[in-house]
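Reviewers asked in the last cycle whether our approach scales beyond single polypeptides. To address this, we selected a multi-component target totalling 836 residues and predicted its structure end to end. The input consisted of the following lines:
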Amino acid sequence: MPEQDLVYLAARMNVQSDTPSKKEAILKTTLDLIKDNGFHGTPISLIAKKAGVAAGTIYHYFPNKDAIIIELHKVIKEQMASAMFSEAGTKKEYKQQFFDGWMNLVRYFINNPSALIFIQQFNSSPFVKLASAGDTKASVNKFYEFFQAGMDKGYLKQMEYKLIAAAVFGCITSVANYHVGGRYNFKNEDLCKVANIMWDGIKYRSAKV
Amino acid sequence: MPEQDLVYLAARMNVQSDTPSKKEAILKTTLDLIKDNGFHGTPISLIAKKAGVAAGTIYHYFPNKDAIIIELHKVIKEQMASAMFSEAGTKKEYKQQFFDGWMNLVRYFINNPSALIFIQQFNSSPFVKLASAGDTKASVNKFYEFFQAGMDKGYLKQMEYKLIAAAVFGCITSVANYHVGGRYNFKNEDLCKVANIMWDGIKYRSAKV
Amino acid sequence: MPEQDLVYLAARMNVQSDTPSKKEAILKTTLDLIKDNGFHGTPISLIAKKAGVAAGTIYHYFPNKDAIIIELHKVIKEQMASAMFSEAGTKKEYKQQFFDGWMNLVRYFINNPSALIFIQQFNSSPFVKLASAGDTKASVNKFYEFFQAGMDKGYLKQMEYKLIAAAVFGCITSVANYHVGGRYNFKNEDLCKVANIMWDGIKYRSAKV
Amino acid sequence: MPEQDLVYLAARMNVQSDTPSKKEAILKTTLDLIKDNGFHGTPISLIAKKAGVAAGTIYHYFPNKDAIIIELHKVIKEQMASAMFSEAGTKKEYKQQFFDGWMNLVRYFINNPSALIFIQQFNSSPFVKLASAGDTKASVNKFYEFFQAGMDKGYLKQMEYKLIAAAVFGCITSVANYHVGGRYNFKNEDLCKVANIMWDGIKYRSAKV
DNA sequence: AATGAATGAGCGTTCATTCAT
DNA sequence: TATGAATGAACGCTCATTCAT
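The resulting structure, written as structure tokens, was:
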């Protein structure tokens, strides 16, 4: 079910209509094109053509090309948080929460390769500076809070939570990237193994739990 | 000594002269500019100006702009391998080799932020397709061989070596990126902690070694 | 009372309503915007926004953008004639009529800088060709008749009346422009001095009245 | 001999070559096109075509379109000063200097209608603000000095010299404009008559010389 | 080998105008 | 009447690449 989440989410952005709005079409098209061609290989004229709108129309919904990127970033970040913590409400063991979150996020990336590639391009482009200051603190915090809570409750090794976050997040995207890029076709149990690696690495005492 | 390695390596590429050749100047300049402006924010004219050559001259050394990127990628990949396994000749314990390699690579990235940013941009750009086929098998293999050997000798958990490679490499770049991007200023002991996480995660039995 | 005249005149264009009609609002807004931004710095979308109407509405009142310009030109030309000869009915000496007309027109421009700037832009733009043929003969004639009458009655030097008209009109706009453009802040007596220059220049015999 | 002066002047800008340089061709072409189409009716693409260069080439000589306008303005201002005071070195009576300067400038405009139209468009466009601060003080001063000197020596009526300057300059351009615009075909003696008007207007005592 | 003027396709963006509502 | 979303031609400008010198 590739890219399902994105379509679903996008559809919810416009409550009144069943047909996807122009704005959604533009966002979705841009994301797809970026996957294949990169930011700069994706001219407005191409977005317009593939989205079935006139080039000028894009400028009714976005002040400029960068704004499309920024908005895409925001949407995807929210989807990532949404995917990771989808069952967070249920009272599960911490370890289970970690495994579920891990697998959810990897699966999100594998099902939405455009999102993975976008996020990685974004994070290694001059855009990061524009966006990091801004809008997605909420979703980022959720991520950090989870690890902080794990340390506070004694499940995880004590350390700066950013260290764990960097390690875990880098690991997830890297694995997903191997898969998406076709370098290796990870099966579900493979993904579990990597989750195990990370859990064994970060849990409080190597011998227990 | 930031960016030292690159200069050094570059210098060795041209055996005959003590002064850096034009080709080296072009490569070095391009790398620096990409750090600040990204691939597409780095026009040939700017490279020419900063490198002190005419735009046309660049086309004596490279058939087109993409070729500069491809070559830079090759050079940096070699440097990374070189950095990781610099003391590999000495007979050390496997665990020590892992820690040394880990720290060496992180330090390489922290000392050569341009290289880190370049590699990440490269890996999330349409260029990957052009390059992965080609030239860097040797250095990549070294990386893989190390993990395969670890599994064969019983130091590491048994699994597809690409899984470990993806996890470890993704983790390293992510941590280095946090540091380089200024999101967190990791001290040496912080980096050790992350190495520990990974080692605890991948070693054969959590309780031993 | 800057720009008062225009509002007043505009209001009279629509006899039925006390509130300014949409057409008037469009004309007035366009004139104001042109003062600050020039013809081509004044897009229809901006006129619409500032005039409080939809862009499409403008096309109910004018066939295209040029037509707004043409109509503005006509309105302002009429205002200029109106301003110059406002007290013409009273029987005054010819010299006094000249001075009054002169001062009236300069004051009109100083009180309606938008009109001055518009007229000058118009006269030095490709629009002149479109307009001169057309609609404003009446007001132009009044201007010419005044000078012709002055020559016929022996008050002015004999010459092609267009020469005098060009000289006097060019002089007035130039002086008003210095003032409006902020290059010099002319007092009332200054303006009188320039009127005197022109009168001394054009009167029949230098020694007499 | 239309536009002769401009060609001549332009040729002198590039001392080494007999053939007009690209830069000169761009300037000259732009001036011609502006006469017929106005600033905004003169796209870069048209300038390029008529000047026989590629559009991109224009950007080797000027940073942007505005810069062409600014430079044209500077060149024309210098030509105007040059035209007016061409025989200023010879010791002539003040009145004669005035007449000569007057006639020279009118003739310059009549022979270079593009320059006249350009100057008028420029002076009634948002460009004025950019340029008035800047570069042409020298030529402007010459103009003012001449009138100031006339007052100091008792040849002219005492008043703020800007008043006289505004009156005289406005008069000249207006007259030339009538001629160039085809509204009236002034003969040489006509132009003399207007010069006489201005002289009679500004000279110290109406009865004397 | 080295230059840098010249090219022109292609970019992001604007805006006068249309038309379904 | 009035709207404003939609259009798409046209704009100013960039930049990888070429080539005469």
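Residues 4-202 of chain B form a domain with the Tetracycline Repressor; domain 2 fold (CATH 1.10.357.10). We regard this as preliminary and will revisit it once experimental data from Aim 1 are available.
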